[in-house]
Amino acid sequence: MSIPADAPILTSAAMREAEAACAVQGTPLSELMELAGVAVADIAWRMGAGAPILILCGPGNNGGDGYVAARVLAARGVAVRVAALAEPATDLAKSARAGWSGPVETIDAALASAPLIVDALFGVGLSRPLAHDLTLLLRRFVGRRVLAVDVPSGVESDGNADWMPPLAADVTLALSALKPAHVLLPTAPACGRVLLAPIGIAPHGTMRTLPPLKAATPAATAHKFNRGMVLVFAGPMPGAAGLASASALRAGAGYVVLEGSERAPLSAIITESDARFGERLSDPRVGAVVIGPGFPAGDELLFDVEAALDSGKPLVLDAAAISAALPRLCETPCRAILTPHEGEFARAFPELYGSKIDRAKAAAVRTGAVVIYKGADTIVAAPDGRVVAAWPGSPWLATAGTGDVLAGACGAMLARGGDAFDAAVAAVGWHIAQAARIGRGLVADDLVRE
Predict the structure, then answer these.
(1) Burial class (CB in 10 A: 0-12, 13-18, 19+), 126
(2) Which InterPro entries match (predicted)?
(3) Is 90 exposed, middle or buried (0-12, 13-18, 19+ CB in 10 A)?
């Protein structure tokens, strides 16, 4: 499973708006369909390697793309068969069908089919699950290689429904932009490897996939304080704060103080008692405060969170600290990053609904903070609507303590100054890259070792 880095993501409504804008600017939609069909044919040509290809066409424009692809592949000498679910229902699809000179079979008649299936049945905009009889029919193609056009048939492209396609794709070709279903569970794995085909539509929007990780080399004038000083508060479970403090140092902070713990995970980390709590919060050199790892809900956490909020310092709030800070954040947003996993998000924002992207965006607007909604399909959302989707992460991150490591990395990136959203995206990228480097058998401590 893979997706293009730093690629645009559009909902089905935004995609329709982008297509309409192209038409207004003088690009006929028929030209866009031709480009889409050629792009599908190119990928099918490479996947098929000369073998016969069966293209399943639906009644809409997704099916139109399939008819164009069939015509192009046949012109290249490929043995192409076309099977249709129904007659074309749009003008564009009818025109594309007219351009295909070969026979059109019914899907049930095409079951003894080619080794490569091109799924051009529905694409984006599906508003309900597939009919039971069609689902059973498509499952009979399982075992063959599948190229899906835009999204596998049966997938709700905006990520608002968890329908699973009866025919998962080996490769999905996203047209112009990725769709939320490509980067959200449970549908993302069913899309297989996702490729992006620019077809002349300018996909303006605020959602993108995770950009490539950029290694930030300190400047010649760097010293430990201008690289970022991070203050981490330790709770009753100091191991979690220890991981966060070590992560902050490994992720690029120049100076890290672990408050409330007598044991430093690295010799370069300064440990201090709670007696210096207020003093450190007023230290102008502190660029970010991390609070929450290893800190259960209670009066002690509430007191420390209130003090951190009063300090005006940029904050990374993890675990129980998120709910503790929520009333203040909603009233007076500050430069902060929240790092909830699924359970913590549900406790903090039980009334939010929609896709994971929709919920993360709503939580960011409500709190005025950047939200890292963690998981295998991590979403980073800013109050101004910017979103980065970090699918796929590493499955080895599903182990205790890795969230504490991410919180520390956020602290390091935030302490450098600049935009909190950029800091959060950089931290997520660093976290995933560390996990990819280590791989099998990863435990949280490995992430902060050299």
Answers:
(1) buried
(2) CARKD, Nnr, Ribokinase-like, YjeF_N_dom, YjeF_N_dom_sf
(3) middle
| DSSP state at residue 376 | T
pLDDT over 90, % of the chain: 79
Tell whether residue 64 is among the known ligand binding residues: yes
The one-letter amino acid code at 431 reads H
On whether 65 is known to bind a ligand per the annotation, the reply is yes
What one-letter code names the amino acid at 97?
R
75, pLDDT greater than 70: yes
Return all residues near 192 (Cβ < 8 A) that are at least 6 apart. 1, 146, 148, 168, 169, 170, 171, 172
Question: Does 226 carry a binding-site annotation?
Answer: no
Class of domain 12-208: alpha beta
Which has the closest alpha carbon to 262: 288, 223, 234, 228? 234
Determine the Cα–Cα distance for residues 365 and 197; give it in Å rounded to an integer: 32
pLDDT in tens, 416-435: 999 999 999 999 999 999 99
d(CA 114, CA 383): 49
272 DSSP β-pair partners: 259
| pLDDT per residue as tens digits for the range 119-145 | 999 999 788 999 999 999 999 999 999
Do the beta carbons of residue 377 and residue 188 sit within 8 Å? Answer: yes
Per the listing, tokens 């690029």 go with 252
**In sequence order, which ranges of 293-398 are alpha helices (DSSP H)?**
299-311, 320-331, 342-348, 356-367
Instruction: Please state the domain extents for the chain.
Output: 12-208, 229-447
Q: Which homologous superfamily is 229-447 in?
A: Ribokinase (3.40.1190.20)
Angle at 447 between CA 441 and CA 449, to 5 degrees: 105
d(CA 78, CA 273): 74
Name the average pLDDT for the chain: 93
Q: Is the pLDDT reported for residue 110 higher than 90? A: no
Nearest to 54 by CA among 31, 27, 78: 78
Q: Which two tokens stand for residue 128?
A: 């309900």
Report pTM.
Answer: 0.95
42 annotated to a ligand binding site? no
Is 384 known to sit in a ligand binding site?
Answer: no
User: Is residue 125 a known part of a binding site?
Assistant: yes
322 neighbors 300 (Cβ within 8 angstroms): no
* Residue 354 counted as an annotated binding residue: no
- What is the distance, to the nearest Å, from the Cα of residue 152 to the centroid of all Cα atoms in its chain? 18
